[in-house]
Specification:
The complex is a heterodimer of chains A (425) and B (328). Chain A is an alpha/beta fold and 425 residues long. Chain A contains 14 helices and 20 strands. Helix content of chain A is 30%, strand content 23%. Helix content of chain B is 37%, strand content 14%. Chain B contains 12 helices and 9 strands. In chain B, helix 4 links the parallel strand 3 and strand 4. The C terminus of chain B is likely disordered. Classes of the chains: A alpha/beta (425), B alpha/beta (328).
């Protein structure tokens, strides 16, 4: 198969790439820019005039709900939704049912990904067996089976001794650990940021210290064990500050933020909108500004969808009784571009956050446009509107907190390994 | 409150009664004024008015209650409505039925009004957003959020004893963190223009940024009670002693219990209120609960008149009657 993408503006800040150039693809690979190779006869010509061509997006955290929670979504529905936002690589946390703590579950994930063939799927293995925080999981075998990192998902490890040994062992396997920082004793069934809003609504509150204490504890152990570590989904300005200071001292850590926390605050809960029930919680505007600041000085190097599709019943109950999480994967790109349009960050800052930087964190050679690489590409029209409407979402989960938002930057084509996996036409 | 106020219909009339927050001062006065006329119903030989004849009201109590449930029941009966009492905690939900299915089932029984108590904040809002358009919802307490009928009966009680809200200093004492009564009272007192609302409690029982609701915080009982006109004591649930919030009942009573000695700090004609049920010797001394400053039993009687007024208003019965009188 020969494909040419013509007249588009290629944008890949990681390669200092921003110019009008054609791309020529033979089978799965990009074979040339600018110059049509000799004898190249395209089977498909994609006209990218007035459009922007990006590396296929890399989503650092999305739940595809397989295996075990198929009533909320499946590989087919969620990866198609991902393709509609230009996403071609997805990292999946281990809190599936069963948990990704055996090579068999990893193999299942890989097999499903091959069957569906819409994205590269990177499962994270469990740090402890069944994510219980007690006994180490078979990290070496999980790595052998293809896990690119290791994580205890949303389950905090209470026992500090277990945490220390898990870090040491992960380090000896040369695995990056993905830490969701939460002290669950302090969270204590909380569902909303501790502040004027949770007080007014009478919602059990999650103080900022639930995040900062967990970060501080993990940082001390990272320093001691020298493990390669990534912090998932920061939510507080103070949390960003702790990571910033650690990085200044030379501790090798990275951090990401969920797209919801860059756009929304606890004010958006309004009268108990359960679609704003997310973890970590939506915090104050001051915290949101702190996260943006973290992007500016590169303390935060990635933005993820933290996609969590739910069936309608999971969100239909009094706020505290609903399940946390938002369905966001299909709006990741336009929501990022919205930050650019609002002048909170620049386009050159926005793109690496969802392409080259998450790829670096995962240690995968994705998220860049380069010759002889697999042709994973996203083509979008910066001027066309994306009106978010729960009635025409592709994800099985309609639980978006952004219903009714009018954004720009509709994806017109997504290519995975040189195949068009999504096209508006 | 952001967004649409679902408590009001498009003409600004009360449709649901979910929270004091979001209601205007004139509306609160209207409720208090109607309650005055309903307060004489129980002095008649036949203690009934026919305002809600033919209407069916369901008491949906997802959390146990005696006082609130029975006063709602009496209020409904005095308005001539049919009333169903459902203790949902012990029936449907333990069988795994989801809340929206329970609501659908009750709608199919042609209920006109749900009186809801639930242990989760926002439950009444949720139910109001789910029910068919002809059904009204009254919040009889949702989690830590609001207990708006309790606040209104307390405002009614205060008004019987004190003429002008603008001159009042009110102290609310105790477990503010878990109290829906406190939140509703704070909104009601501020909306009615009270001079000062104080809360007195140890910091473990004060939620963050509560001062943004318009209160002054005290952690010393004697200073907090200084020259107040009204003292509202909150019930302290015994299970609060088990966690890290408080050391013991004994220490709590020594620090925050209301005694006659402490009451000397208030104005001479101060009244003492309590939403009940009382924990004698935990938050309040028996001598005070039964003493001359106490209006605790009056609160209970006023609860019936207030709930009659609110039930009649959300069913649109009072507004219609008013129009009829105007036509005459």
């Amino acid at each position: 198969m020969h494909i040419s993408i013509e007249n588009g503006r290629l944008l890949d800040p990681s390669n200092n790439f921003d110019q009008k150039q054609d791309i020529f693809i033979v089978d799965s690979k990009i074979v040339s820019f600018k110059k049509k190779p000799d004898g190249f006869k395209p089977d498909i010509v994609v006209d990218a005039k007035n459009k922007i061509v990006l590396p296929g997006l890399v989503d650092l955290c999305a739940r595809l709900r397989e295996p075990g929670l198929e009533k909320k979504g499946n590989f087919s529905s969620e990866l198609y939704a991902a393709n509609s936002s230009g996403i071609t690589s997805v990292s999946v946390p281990p809190d599936t049912t069963p948990v990704i703590d055996t090579p068999a579950v990893v193999e299942f994930m890989h097999q499903r990904a091959r069957e569906i063939n819409r994205a590269n799927v990177y499962p994270l293995g469990a740090l402890t067996q069944k994510l219980k925080g007690e006994q180490l999981a078979e990290m070496y075998l999980l790595k052998e089976a293809g896990c690119v990192g290791i994580s205890n998902a949303l389950n905090a490890i209470e026992n500090t001794e277990v945490l220390r040994r898990a870090f040491e062992y992960a380090n000896s396997c040369d695995l990056t650990i993905f830490i969701y920082p939460e002290d669950q004793k302090i969270t204590n069934n909380g569902v909303a940021h501790e502040g004027a809003i949770s007080t007014r609504l009478g919602l059990p509150a999650i103080p900022e210290t639930a995040e900062t204490i967990a970060i501080s504890r993990a940082l001390l152990l990272i320093e001691q064990t020298n493990v390669r570590a990534h912090f998932c989904h920061l939510s507080s300005a103070r949390g960003v500050q702790l990571i910033r200071e650690a990085r200044k001292q030379g501790i090798q850590v990275t951090a990401d933020v969920s797209i919801c926390n860059l756009h929304l605050t606890d004010m958006d809960i309004a009268d108990y909108d359960s679609n704003c029930h997310v973890k970590p919680p939506l915090r104050s505007e001051r915290d949101r500004m702190g996260l943006i600041e973290g992007i500016h000085d590169q303390t935060i190097s990635a933005v993820c969808s933290d996609h969590q599709p739910h069936e309608a019943n999971a969100k239909s109950a009094p706020f505290s009784l609903t399940e946390p999480g938002a369905s966001t994967i299909e709006h990741l790109l336009p929501l990022m571009l919205h930050l650019v349009n609002r002048k909170e960050i620049t386009l050159n800052q926005a793109i690496p956050l969802i392409t080259s930087e998450p790829a670096k964190i995962l240690g995968i050679s994705k998220g860049a446009i380069e010759k002889n690489r697999n042709a994973d590409l996203c083509i979008y029209d910066p001027k066309s509107n994306v009106n978010i409407n729960i009635n025409n979402m592709l994800s099985a989960g309609k639980n978006t907190p952004f219903n009714g938002w009018e954004l720009q930057g509709k994806v017109t084509h997504t290519l995975l390994n040189g195949e068009v996996v999504f096209s508006l036409d | 409150m952001t967004g649409n106020n679902i408590q009001l219909d498009k003409n600004g009339n009360l449709k649901h009664f979910l929270s004091i927050e979001g209601l205007s001062q004139p509306l609160l006065h209207t409720i208090l004024n109607y309650a005055v006329s309903f307060s004489t119903v129980d002095k008649r030989p036949v203690k009934k008015v026919p305002l809600l004849r033919g209407k069916t009201i369901a008491n949906l109590f997802f959390e146990p209650s005696t006082r609130t449930r029975t006063t709602f029941e009496l209020a409904a009966k005095r308005l001539s409505a049919d009333i169903l009492n459902l203790n949902i905690s012990t029936s449907a939900t333990t069988k795994g039925e989801i809340l929206s299915d329970t609501l659908r089932t009750l709608e199919a029984m042609h209920c006109d009004m749900f009186v809801v108590r639930h242990s989760n904040s926002g439950a009444a809002h949720y139910i109001a957003s789910q029910v068919a358009p002809h059904i009204s919802v009254i919040n009889a307490g949702d989690g830590r959020h609001e207990h708006p009928t309790q606040a209104m009966l307390d405002m009614f009680t205060i008004k019987q004893h004190k003429k002008d809200f603008a001159k009042l200093s009110v102290a609310i004492v105790g477990d503010i963190l878990h109290s829906r009564v406190a939140r509703s009272e704070i909104h009601a007192l501020n909306m009615l223009g009270a001079n000062e609302v104080r809360i007195i409690a140890p910091h473990t029982l004060i939620p963050k940024d509560i001062e943004k609701l318009g209160v002054h915080i005290y952690d010393d009982m004697n200073r907090g009670l200084q020259d107040v006109d009204v003292v509202v004591m909150l019930r302290l649930q015994r299970e609060r002693m088990r966690g890290a919030l408080l050391p013991s009942e004994n220490e709590y009573f020594k620090r925050f219990g209301l005694t006659n000695e402490r009451l000397k700090n208030t104005k001479k004609d101060a009244i003492v209120m309590h939403p009940g049920p009382i924990n004698r010797g935990v938050e309040i001394d028996s001598d005070v609960a039964d003493g001359k400053h106490s209006v605790i039993l009056q609160q209970v009687s006023h609860g019936i008149a207030i709930r009659m007024a609110i039930m009649a208003m959300v069913m649109g019965q009072i507004n219609k009657n008013e129009n009829m009188e105007k036509k005459k």
